[in-house]
Design a protein that fits this description.
Layout (H helix, E strand, L loop, with lengths): L4 E7 L5 H9 L16 E7 L2 E7 L11 H13 L3 E7 L3 H14 L3 E6 L1 H6 L2 E3 L1 H8 L3 E3 L8 H12 L13 H18 L8 H9 L3 H10 L1 H22 L3 H17 L4 E3 L8 H9 L4 H42 L4 H18 L2 H17 L1 H15 L6 H10 L5 H6 L7 H10 L8 H12 L4 H25 L21 H20 L1 H14 L5 H16 L6 H22 L1 H13 L6 H9 L6 H12 L10 H7 L5 H13 L4 H11 L2 H28 L5
Parallel strand pairs: 1-3, 1-4, 4-5, 5-7
Antiparallel strand pairs: 2-3, 6-8
């Protein structure tokens, strides 16, 4: 079967657009309750009566005016790909605001089907919508749906497919903007059509509107297409703008917005909406917000929620983690007994089982953490966190929407810096955007959490949940201070206003929570079985080869034979102890002689300032690729350097027994790991989003230097106070 129909989904953030996409296509794309999650179009296939329908989920956007990256992505797709129909998803309880985007779709002439989503929530608020009347007034199909349950979606798709199959061209709708602008639009439209100015892509009237709205993307395209006409159109708009400013004290953009809302109200007042309750009545979400977003109670509730999340994770996740650690220990011991000594055995036991197994043992903690985050996100609470943090962010020169980039990156727990960096596309100010994408990776992402949990559980066994919570607060404090430094120096500039929609609270569904938790957990497992596995093998090779010189190997073998020759029943225990000591010395020297060992030793004169020995250096260098590698590399390094490399002792036990490690060293290591260079995938994303490789290199150098300075300060201060013993 071939794909014959292309349908795009468009709508405001929080309108349920991505929920509808998941329901139609079976996709497991994450659903968020805030702008900025879907910053790139997602694609899927819907089977309609045995035929495939290609569905594209566009970024959530409030308009098609290119103020943010997500609006550019949505608009560019519509005008270049020209889908046969657009399903415009509107929140039925906020129809007036949601129809603003619809007006712009009408003006582009895109064949549209309007989906009134969350019609049940509208009824609960006493709002009744006459869909048939709205369809008559708009002249397009209007279908009430509930995307979460799938109610009405079959009818929606049937009608959308029917519209898509109609053989017709795009038919722009004209909205009146008052005499001044209407006359200007007519003149500009005529000139644009005569000169064929961008008409191969955009309707002439729509291009004129974009000039009046000072749309920089369209203006730049016009300048490249026909500089003379572009200059004339700009001059005409400037003249009318000056006239409006003098006569009405307003701007053309404001006039256009006012008339669009006037157009919407004129439709809704014609028997489309009936309000049963007083619009000023407080509904459940409003009453809850009076408490959870209160200036004083809100932050306290937020702290309690986060402490509860960490307590849940460690209380119920640690026993399961211990079980997995034992399983991987038994697996290593089993392989040890099955295979003869050699590189293959070392690779499997020390490189793969000790390395990757150490990462996978944290799956229970990660799964519980992700489950808790899914509850907070799907319920709508995370949007309230962003709302409350806006006041704080302004102090540090950031935009309120920067909060979401921080949260997505792991500002609560267990996120990922890559989507967090991509979420900065919603920021309109380039300087605020750069400052946010450079500091968002400082959050405690899901890759850092296992390392933090390992060191916390080993050296700070009391009150682990509270300690990890304090580390989360530390990440926020350092990130904001770094942002303030950047905004006061290389990225100096004024902050832009912040407006954020607070979605209604919703009870998360078990299916949704299960999908979201498994998605993120599976990403962690898959990364451990692919990227981390590959890096672990490479690092094992670097920690194994070139091996000891032949003469040193011969010396160790000679000593081993001498010990074996003295083996009798009476001296068994002494001989075994001597063999263990010799093996430990041989393995440690071999590790030091390896490529990775030489690098770690070369860095030790500098790293000792922060308390890091050569084995820790190997792990930290591996962490530049991916933070999970720190655990796998430590596991391999300590396994290769043990008396019995195939022993089932856990990495936590090995660190606790190593005199190079103590609580002060652990704290310095925690801080360094939290704040040094982002992983390579994140750096590549920073380069792509910032548009320059210089910002990627800056993030690596700046973060690593700052992290090392903090680690040195902690280690030296701790030792000075006598805490390192």
């Amino acid at each position: 079967m071939t794909t014959t129909t292309k349908i795009a989904l468009a709508g405001n953030p929080n309108s349920g657009k991505t929920t509808l996409f998941n329901h139609l296509t079976g996709s497991r794309q994450h659903v968020g309750n805030y702008p900025g999650v879907t910053v790139e179009k997602k694609e899927g296939v819907y089977n309609a009566h045995g035929k495939k329908v290609h569905i594209i989920d566009l970024p959530g956007t409030y308009s098609l005016t290119a103020y943010s990256e997500e609006e550019v992505v949505a608009r560019d797709f519509l005008v270049t790909e020209k889908p046969q129909v657009v399903i415009n998803i509107a929140d039925a309880a906020n129809l007036e605001r949601n129809l603003y985007l619809s007006c712009q779709l009408f003006e582009l002439g895109i064949p549209t089907v309007l989906a009134l989503n969350m019609i049940d929530a509208a009824r609960d608020r006493g709002i009744t919508i006459d869909a048939a009347r709205l369809e008559e007034l708009l002249g397009l199909p209007v279908v009430p749906i509930i995307a979460r349950s799938g109610q009405g979606t079959v009818e929606l798709m049937d009608r959308a497919i029917a519209v898509a199959r109609e053989p017709r061209t795009w038919q722009p709708v004209s909205i009146s903007y008052g005499d001044d602008l209407d006359n200007l639009l007519l003149e500009m439209e005529t000139e644009i059509e005569t000169a064929a100015f961008l008409t191969d892509t955009y309707p002439a009237r729509w291009t004129a509107i974009k000039y009046i709205e000072s749309d920089q993307q369209i203006i730049a395209k016009g300048q490249a297409c026909n500089p003379e006409l572009a200059a004339e159109l700009t001059a005409r708009v400037a003249a009318v703008a000056d006239h409006l400013q003098q006569t009405m004290d307003t701007y053309p953009e404001a006039v256009i917005a006012d008339h669009r809302y006037g157009y919407i109200k004129s439709i809704l007042k014609q028997g489309v909406i009936r309000q049963q309750f007083d619009p000023a009545r407080l509904f459940a979400s409003d009453r809850i917000d009076m408490v959870v977003t209160n200036r004083f109670l809100g932050p306290l509730i937020m702290v309690a929620v986060l402490l509860g999340l960490y307590h849940l994770t460690f209380t119920y996740g640690k026993p399961l983690q211990d079980v997995l650690t034992m399983v991987f220990g038994w697996l290593g011991a089993g392989v040890d007994h099955l295979l003869p000594a050699g590189h293959l055995k070392s690779l499997l036991v020390s490189g793969i089982i000790a390395g990757v197994g150490g990462v996978l043992s944290f799956v229970p903690l990660i799964m519980l953490m992700f489950a808790g985050i899914a509850v907070l996100e799907d319920s709508g609470y995370l949007a309230r966190v962003a709302f409350m943090m806006d006041r704080v962010f302004r102090i540090f020169g950031l935009h309120g929407s920067s909060v979401m980039a921080y949260i997505i990156s792991g500002g609560i727990a267990g996120g990922c810096a890559v989507p967090g960096v991509m979420a900065t596309r919603t920021l309109r100010s380039p300087k605020e955007r750069i400052a946010t994408l450079l500091t968002a990776p400082l959050m405690n992402c899901g890759a850092k959490l296992p390392v933090l949990a390992l060191l916390t559980g080993t050296f700070f066994t009391q009150n682990k949940a509270q300690f990890l919570f304090l580390l989360t607060l530390l990440a926020w404090v350092v990130a904001l201070l770094m942002a303030k430094l950047l905004r006061s120096t290389v990225l100096r500039g004024a902050s832009t206003p912040f407006v954020m929609e607070l979605p209604p609270y919703r009870l998360p569904t078990f299916k949704g929570l299960a999908i979201h938790t498994w998605e993120k957990t599976w990403q962690y497992i898959r990364k451990a079985g692919t990227v981390i596995l590959g890096i672990s093998i490479l690092l094992w090779a670097a920690m194994t080869f070139p091996g000891l010189p032949a003469e040193r190997e011969a010396q160790f073998e000679s000593q081993r034979q001498a010990i074996m020759q003295t083996h009798t029943a009476d001296t068994t225990q002494v001989s075994q102890a001597a063999l263990g000591t010799l093996t430990a010395a041989r393995n440690l020297e071999a590790l030091q002689h390896s490529l990775a060992g030489r690098l770690g030793i070369a860095l030790e004169p500098l790293s000792r300032l922060a308390g890091f020995d050569w084995r820790t250096n190997i792990a930290l260098v591996g962490g530049f690729a991916a933070k999970e590698v720190i655990i796998s590399t430590l596991g391999t390094a300590y396994s290769l350097g043990e008396t019995n490399p195939e022993s089932s002792a856990s990495l936590s036990q090995a660190l606790a027994a190593d005199p190079a490690w103590n609580p002060v060293t652990a704290m310095a290591g925690i801080v360094f790991i939290m704040f040094y260079a982002p992983c390579l995938v994140t750096v590549a994303c920073i380069i792509r989003e910032a548009g320059s490789w210089k910002w990627g290199l800056f993030s690596m150098a700046f973060n690593t230097a700052a992290a090392f300075a903090l680690a040195v300060a902690i280690f030296q201060a701790g030792n000075a106070m006598g805490l390192g013993g």
